Predict the 3D structure of the following.
Amino acid sequence: MRLEKVTALVTGAGSGIGAAVSSHFRREGARLLLTGRRERMDIVQPDDVYVSGDLNDEVFVASLAEHAAGAFGSVDVVVINHGLQASSPLTEMAYDDAKNVLHSNLLSAFLVMKHFAPLMPAAGGSFVCVSSRLGMVGMPGEVLYSAAKGGLIMLAKGAAIEWAPRNIRVNVVAPGLTATPIIESAFRRRSDPEAYRRERESQIPLQRLASPEEVADAVLFLASSESSYITGAVLPVDGGYTAF
Ligand SMILES: NC(=O)c1ccc[n+]([C@@H]2O[C@H](COP(=O)([O-])OP(=O)(O)OC[C@H]3O[C@@H](n4cnc5c(N)ncnc54)[C@H](OP(=O)(O)O)[C@@H]3O)[C@@H](O)[C@H]2O)c1
């Protein structure tokens, strides 16, 4: 098992990519602390610890870290997966919505890093941040999300250098369009869902969406000792979208 004796926090674990990461990590032997805003998570298993709350709130993040210290002593792996997409033309986006996107994708990631790095053991640890292909390229209607996910990449790179002397690795997975429930329901809301899906797929070199499990495979690699000499890296899992 690739995560035997490893303790791990997964944020936004209740659905989509976070649920797939949790399932991969459990299969590989990790002990899991899961978190998200919803009060209950269907995916939580008897051996998991689940704590609900808002990661935009530093008081909650600090209490989550205390919980982790009490339950596990130390935390080896932290997957910062939670996030929020908000689409709007730039000139029509309300300032409060813009702040929410930046908080939910970037500043909350900073809070998790700040409060969980001190819990990593003396031998080191691994952070994996889930950014997006839109952290590397722009897209109309997604400007604030892109800015937040691009900021997350630079947060990870800076932290990777700052914490390298402690052997804390910090890496990024940048998924392309992934067939998670939130994306599938957005497709269903279109007047012709199948035509819309084909159009979106045609923009991707591999001509299809990722599955949440394919993204979780990359997260698992960067979390495990198989990537022991990789830090500050961005791994696109986007079917070639950013290869253009
Ligand atoms: N699906 C895609 O096509 C795609 C592509 C590129 C990148 N991504 C990124 O991949 C990650 C997972 O996406 P997904 O599609 O699996 O989305 P999702 O199903 O909406 O999952 C996001 C999770 O984040 C949690 N969350 C959001 N804001 C939070 C906050 N302030 N505090 C605590 N939890 C919070 C949500 O928890 P609750 O539901 O409990 O509120 C939710 O479980 C996100 O960072 C997303 O930006 C997704």
About this structure: Helices lie at 16-27, 58-72, 95-116, 143-163, 181-188, 193-202, 212-223. Residues 7-177+212-243 form a domain with the Rossmann fold fold (CATH 3.40.50.720). Strands lie at 7-11, 31-36, 49-52, 77-80, 125-130, 168-175, 234-237.
